[in-house]
Structures are given as structure tokens and as C-alpha cells.
Amino acid sequence: MILTKSIIGGLKISKNDTLISDDTMAAAASTSTVSLLDQSDNGGDGDDYQLTNIERESGFLWDRLVPVNDINSGYDFTYDYQEQLIFWLEHDFKSGTANIRKVKFDGESRGNLFADGEISKLTSSPYSIEVDPASRNLFIGDITQSKIEVISIDNLKRAVVLSGFDNETGVGHPSVLTVNSQDGEIYWIDDGYEMVPKKIASVRMDGLNPKILVKDNINNPNSIFYHALSKRIYWSDRGRRKIEFVSVSNLNDRAVVLSDVEYPSAITIWDIDSSGGDSGVQETISILYYSDQIQEQLVAYNLKTNEKKILLTNVPNIMQMRLYKQPVLNSYQYGTRTPCLTNNGGCHQICIPSMRSSESMDRICKCSDGLELQVQDGSCRPYRTFLFYATKSFVRAMPYYDTIESTMPSNLASIEALPILPGNNIGKADFDYRSRSIVWIEDDRLINILTLNYSWQSDPRLNNRNTGDFFSSKTLFELFSATGYLKSVAVDWINGLLYYSYFDDPFSYIKVCRYPNADFHYTIFSSKEDKPTAIAVNPKLRYIYWIDQSRFPRIERAYLDGSNRTVIVRSDILSATDLFVDVNRGDIYWSDNTKDKIERCSWDGTNRQVIKSTGL
Fold it and tell me: Rounded CA gap, 101 and 340, in Å?
């Protein structure tokens, strides 16, 4: 199999010496247009390789693998042997859109793994994908949201494995990953971000025990492969012009395999069982395949004899390489040691292999994001309480606990209480308690909504293994003014109203419309001098509050129709940026960037006090 920016084909390598064995397959990803590559068994060298059309030889892969054309910005690919499926990433970096595409080896059933655009709800910048044959899970590395995810190929349920860049064992920019099916682990190259250093790291497939394997003496690692036979991780470093390995069981066992490789860009290893020769002793020969973008070569290297052979020349920009091989599912590596291949391990949604001992493998059941695993029956149910927050690039939610309990998950930062909502230039957000919806501003012009379509008390879909869509999202409306931009949004869930503030030079407005229909827009406030920004609504007390960032910053209050304007905070306020109403108590909370404080007061402006200062 060969992935280019526009085509997937395959490369057949024939037997001509101890480096190559009959019927071995290599798959390479290149930025050039490459058709199927084939060489007959003529004992020639690498120069005999030709660019040819598909060769339909009985008994070979060519009978099942049809070149896949018209790939748009192909970036990475993998395959599922059991269902004979190829998966590849198409990522348009200019528009920010991404998708996972799939096709059968015979060219049939081509399409998206998810419906059009659905992958954008899952991951915004997927850089790498890999299938774990022991569970038939698809793992994805996302650099924008700094996370590694898992998707069940069978039911398309998805969950975060590891996220967060607030410590060095977290995830920054996971650019390349590989899996260790035998031990249930993921290894990845991280380009580093915030507190996360540039590193080669590992984490269990269930998200626990993240570790740094290598962080010293690496420059620009760009390809990684786990070799199960030697239990080593091999990687290429184009900055150091080297290919190295490290033992996963002994991190001091690190060595350089090859030096002075001009631009190594892809590596993989094929283990070949020899016939034994004159000695009669059968042994396994491990062949390292790598590409060199400067020399435009695909090279085979015998890890035992150090013999090197150029297999292919004049192929520019080879980026990735995969080997096609049937998993030996009855071997020690897989076999009955992984229960995930039978009835999904008894899990309702996602089955994750987990080592129980050196001789057996257990499994861990995991729920898709937004659902919590129930210990008593193993079902998946929504989180009853959660804390959601918005950044410029996504809206996220994490479980909320009233107290810090001993049972609180250790990987709390990686648990998603709702599906992650990626977006562009996300602004203010609010929550509708009646319909259990999150409303947020995107790109200064859109107001979007995510609705939780379930009941916590009783919903038959919760116990269905093929759980339906509990979450739906859409755009409520787009700002009608071509020059204006939205500042804030607030929901009156009791009266079914949506308030929003926006600026359209030289006027500032606060408007209200029916919710969720988003029709009958009515202006309750407009001014050339005043500049309302953040707004919040208390529908129980029937007040709307807003921060004014004009010449004299202040916090004001009015009735829901905009009448009876009253300033409730006018002193010692500089750059208030956000506003929140505690509906139950009636208190008003706000943050001030310049003062580096969070403050609150009663509904009428009295009882003002500092909640948190400095270090925000």
C-alpha cells in the first residue's frame, strides 16, 4: 500500500537475497503521485523497480488491493486486516477541515468513516492514525487540541485517551504514533507545547501511566515504529540525520542504528523467518526499511548483518511507510490473550486491551466522551454534573465533583464530560438549564448550540450497545450585519429568550430574540458612547447584567426589556472581561484582567468582596 497526496497503491518486494523474502509487502506514503510499484523475481537490484499498473496475480495482495485515486491532501494512513479496510487522513490546513476516509482493498465501499464534517467534532488537527489489530480500535493524534483519542472501528464510539499540556508527561503536539498491541500501549513523538517537552513518550491504551521515554539528544524526530520482537522503539530524527532505538524495558539501552541519513522520513521493520541454511537452525531476520527524502530513496537495512540495499530511487518526498502483514491472531502477541476481538470484550462501547500479567491480557471498558461508565452494570450514562469552559479553539467539559473524593479519577483532566467542540475564534458561552444546551459564539458572527438529547432519569438508549446520538449541534443564527461582530451571549431559559451583545461601528447593541428559534430580534439597548461586552441573565429575578468597557468601566443592570438601567459597580473596576450570575443565590461574579482578580457582589451591587486575587 502506498499513500501519496493523491493516490494509494502498493509496493511488492521480491526475493533476491537475505534482505528480502517472497511475498513481503511495504507501504509508503509520498507527496508525489505514485502508482502501484512492482518488481518481478529476477534477482535484480533496486534499479529494476518500475512504476506499473496493478498486477493481478492469483494468491497475491494485488488481487484485493485496487489503487485509490483522487485523494485530497492525504496525510497519514493505516489498515484493518480483519475487514480489509484502508483508512487515511485528509486534512485541509487552510480551511481547518479534516476527515477520516476508508475503502475496501478491492476499491469498494469508499467513503467517510464518519458523516461529512463529523470528524471535525472529534478532532480538529489529526496528524497521525494507527489501528490496533488486537482490539480493532483506531488511535488518533491531534496537535491542535493536544490529545490522543481512540475510536472503535465497529461502532464508531470515540473517547480521549490522554490530553492536557500542563505537565511534562502530558500531550503537546503528538505528530506521529504507533501501538504496542502485546502490552496495550501507545508510543508517540511529541513536538512539544507549553509544559510538554519535545519527547518520545508512552501511555497505556486506557490513558493511565503516561511516561517519558526519551527527551534528551533529540532534534526533530519524525517517524516511529514499535518492534514487538525486540521490544524496542525505533525512530528517525531528520534533525540529527539518524535512526535510533530504545528498549521499552530498559531506557538506558539506547543506540544509534544508522548515521548520516540525509533526511530520514519513514521507518518500519519486517521480520522474516529464514530457512536455516546449512546449519538447519531457523532464525528470524529483521529488516529495517527507511526512506530518505534528500536522496529520494527507499532503503532496506539488515539489522543483523548491517547490509544495506537501495530498493527504490527517484521517488521524492517519501513521508511515511507501512508494512502489510496478516496478524497472527493465535500467537503469544494476540491470540486469546485479548478478549476485545470477541463480542467487543462484553463492553457496551469501547474495549481497551489491558495487561493483567505477563501471560494473559484483560480488558477495560470505556465509554465515549460525554458518558460515564457505571461500575454496577458496565453501562454508559451521561455525567450529571460537569464544568464546561471555552477557549479560542474549542469548548470542553470535565466532570465536576462537589468534594475531592478518594474515588475521583486520577486522569480527570483527560475525561470529557461532553464531546469536544472545536471551532474558530470561539467567544463567550452560556448554558441553558432547561434544555441542557450549551450556546456559544464562534468566529465573531455565529451563535452555535449543543443540545444534550437524553434524560438522566430514564432513557432506553443508555442501555443499548449501539447507543444513539445523545448530542446534537447546529448554528442558531449568523449575525446579519457584515461589519458587526458579536461580543457575548446569554440564555433566559425560563422565558425562552436569547440575549446577545455586538458592536457595529460606531454603535454598540444588546438585542434579544426568541430561543431556540432565533427569530423576532429586538433591540433593548444601543449607544455610541457605551460599550457593553459580557452579558449575563438572571431569569428568576428578571434582570440582565452587562459589563461596560467605555471610558468609565462599570457593571450595569436592567430589566429584561432593557428598562430601569442601574449601575451596580462603578468604582475600582478596570478591565472586567467576563460575567456570571449565580441564579440560586443571585450573586454576580466577574473577572478583571488588569487587577488580576475575581470578585462578586449581591444582585443589587452590595456585599462586594474579592474571591481570588493574583496568580490567575
Answer: 24
Q: Are 585 and 594 in contact (CB under 8 A)?
A: no
Amino acid identity for residue 448 in this structure = N
The separation between the first and the last C-alpha atoms of the chain, rounded to the nearest angstrom, is: 51
Q: What is the CA radius of gyration of the chain?
A: 28
State the Cα–Cα distance between residues 235 and 546, nearest whole angstrom.
54
pLDDT digits (tens, 9 = 90+) for 319-371: 777 877 766 543 434 444 578 888 888 888 999 987 655 555 678 898 888 88
The upper half-sphere exposure of residue 203, i.e. CA atoms within 13 Å in the direction of its Cβ, equals 28
Phi, psi for residue 580 in degrees, rounded to 5: -145, 140
Q: Phi and psi (nearest 5°) for 278?
A: -65, -30
**The three three-digit cell numbers of residue 299, written as one number:** 532503503
Per residue in 381-398, pLDDT tens? Answer: 888 788 888 888 788 888
Picking from 263, 272, 336, the residue whose alpha carbon sits closest to that of residue 297 is: 263
The span from the CA of 463 to the CA of 348, in Å, is 8
Residues 6+ apart with CB under 8 A from 342: none
174-180/543-548 β-pairing:
unpaired
Are the C-beta atoms of residues 586 and 538 closer than 8 Å to each other? yes
Q: pLDDT tier at 172 (50, 70, 90 boundaries)?
A: very high
Strand partners, 455: none
CB count, 10 Å around CB of 122?
Answer: 24
Give 113's Cβ-side CA count (13 Å radius): 30
Picking from 314, 337, 336, 316, the residue whose alpha carbon sits closest to that of residue 263 is 316
d(CA 322, CA 8): 12
- Quote the CA–CA distance of 385 and 436 in Å, as a whole number: 11
